[in-house]
């Protein structure tokens, strides 16, 4: 099974001792979250994700001025691994740029560190099941952004996005919609702008997080 978890045994990968204490202490025992590794740098996080075979990685976004990469960078690398684990961002940073950057990198969810234990446990379970796990305030901000006039997608853009989500190439989409590949690329450029992303994968992820794609 892709998610490799049961209610009785859920392996969670933690970024740092501060997160470890937040999760391993207050989370009720009945949640059965098993912490199998921890790391203090993005490089360690990527390595541990590759070798510890976790179901979920809890990832902060900032690791200090001397870190070689950010949490979003590490998330992108982790999600590119074979049999990649899901990544749940757990951080103090909640700017639009942080949120969208994490979503674009492939994060399945986004929580703030002041989230209550039961909310964190539920988010880990949701992420392990391949579902979105957004803090209410984060979900509200994403929805507000998507509902802005400049973010509304046209019916044709929605068709293109749905075909992208189904795994079709630009050439396939052009054939399906009886348009040129240049037109498809133009639609994608408009979609990227409206969703504030820079890639096909990020566009699909952002649209799903906001509920405009199932």
From TrEMBL:
Pfam family, one: GerE
The keyword Heme is assigned to this record: no
Sequence positions bearing 4-aspartylphosphate: 60
Entry keyword annotation includes DNA-binding: yes
Residue ranges of every copy of the HTH luxR-type domain listed in the record: 146-211
Domain named Response regulatory: residues: 1-128
UniProt superkingdom: Bacteria
GO BP terms, alphabetized: phosphorelay signal transduction system; regulation of DNA-templated transcription
Keywords (A to Z) from UniProt: DNA-binding, Phosphoprotein, Transcription, Transcription regulation
Protein name: Response regulator transcription factor
Species of the source: Microbacterium mitrae
């Amino acid at each position: 099974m892709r998610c490799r978890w049961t209610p009785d045994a859920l392996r969670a990968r933690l970024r740092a001792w501060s997160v470890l204490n937040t999760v391993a202490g207050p989370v009720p025992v009945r949640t059965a979250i098993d912490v199998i590794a921890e790391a203090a740098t993005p490089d360690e996080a990527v390595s541990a994700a590759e070798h510890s075979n976790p179901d979920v990685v809890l990832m902060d976004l900032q690791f200090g001025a001397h870190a070689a990469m950010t949490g979003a960078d590490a998330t992108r690398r982790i999600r590119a691994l074979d049999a990649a684990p899901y990544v749940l961002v757990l951080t103090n940073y909640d700017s639009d740029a942080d949120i969208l950057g994490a979503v674009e990198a492939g994060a399945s969810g986004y929580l703030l560190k002041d989230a209550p234990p039961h909310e964190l446990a539920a988010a880990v379970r949701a992420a392990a099941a391949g579902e979105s796990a957004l803090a209410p305030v984060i979900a509200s901000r994403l929805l507000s952004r998507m509902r802005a006039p400049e973010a509304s997608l046209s019916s044709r853009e929605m068709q293109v996005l749905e075909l992208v989500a189904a795994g079709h190439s630009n050439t396939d989409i052009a054939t399906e919609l009886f348009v040129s590949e240049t037109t498809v690329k133009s639609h994608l450029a408009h979609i990227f702008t409206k969703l504030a992303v820079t890639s096909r994968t990020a566009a699909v992820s952002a649209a799903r997080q906001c509920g405009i794609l199932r």
